[in-house]
Amino acid sequence: MNWRTINIDLLDPESPANFSIATLSPAAPRVSASEVQSLSSQIKQLSRGGDSEGALRGALENPPYGGDAAAKEVHLATVVEILQSLKQSEMSPMLSRIYESEGGVEILDVLMKYLYKGMSHSSKPSSAATGSMSPQSTGFSQIHSRGGGEGGGQAMSVLLSWHEKLVEIAGPGSIVRVMSDRRTV
Predict the structure, then answer these.
(1) Contact criterion met (CB below 8 Å) for 163 and 115
(2) How is residue 142 annotated by DSSP?
(3) In the chain, where do the E strands start and end?
(4) Under DSSP, is residue 67 helix (H, G, I), strand (E, B) or coil?
(5) What's the pTM value of the predicted model, to 2 decimals?
(6) Quick check: 40 and 63 in contact, CB under 8 A?
(7) Most confident of 19-33, 45-59, 123-137
(8) d(C-alpha 60, C-alpha 110), whole Å
C-alpha cells in the first residue's frame, strides 16, 4: 500500500470534503428580473420626487441576492444612477444618517458591495479597446480606448468618492465584511 495516495481529508470530520460548501451561504429567495424592474421604477420615482435618501435606502434594503444576472444588472444600474444623481456635499450627512439608523451597518455593507461591483463593471475594457493594448516595461498593459465607454471615467470617479466617504463613516470593517460575504449583488 502506498501511503502517499491516501486522501487524509476524508478522515478529518471538519474537512470541507465532508460537508457541502453550499451550506455556508444563506438561502436567498428567487427574484425575477421583472420584480427587480418594478422595484427599480419605484426607486427611480422616489429619486425624481426629491427623496434621494429614501431611494438609496429602498435600493439597498432590497438587494436581489436570489436574482439572475439580468436582475442584478438592472439593480446595479439603478443604484449607480442614484449615486450619480446625488451631490458630493450630500454624501457624508446621508451616510451618517443611514449608519446611525437601525440596520444601518448592513445597508452600508450592501452599498459597499454595489460600489465594488460598479467599479468592476466600469473598469472592463470594451471589445473595441481590447485589440489596442500596449505592453509596458513594468509588465502591465495599458489599454487605449478613445470614446469606447459612455462616461466610464465619470462613473468611476463617483464610485470612488462614495467609497472614500463610506470607509470614512463605516470604517474598514465594512470592506472586510463585504469581501467575506458569499452573497453577491
Answers:
(1) yes
(2) E
(3) 133-135, 141-143
(4) strand
(5) 0.76
(6) no
(7) 45-59
(8) 6
For 27, 29, 86, 110, 160, the CA distances from 24, given in Å and listed in that order, are 9, 16, 36, 19, 31
* The pLDDT value given to residue 123: 62
Residues 6+ apart with CB under 8 A from 183: 25, 26, 28, 63, 65
Q: Are strands 133-135 and 141-143 parallel, antiparallel or unpaired?
A: antiparallel
169 near 95, Cβ under 8 Å?
Answer: yes
DSSP string across 44-65:
HHHHHTT-HHHHHHHHHHS--T
Residues contacting 161, CB < 8 A, separation 6+: 88, 91
* Residue position matching grid coordinates 444612477: 81
Q: Torsions phi, psi of 163, nearest 5? A: -60, -45
Reduced DSSP (H G I as helix, E B as strand, rest coil) percent helix, strand, coil of the chain, to 5? 65, 5, 35
Look at 153 and 151; give whichever has higher pLDDT.
153
Q: Which residues contact 110 (CB under 8 A, 6 or more apart)?
A: 60, 61, 63, 185
- If you ran DSSP here, which 8-state letter would residue 31 be given? B
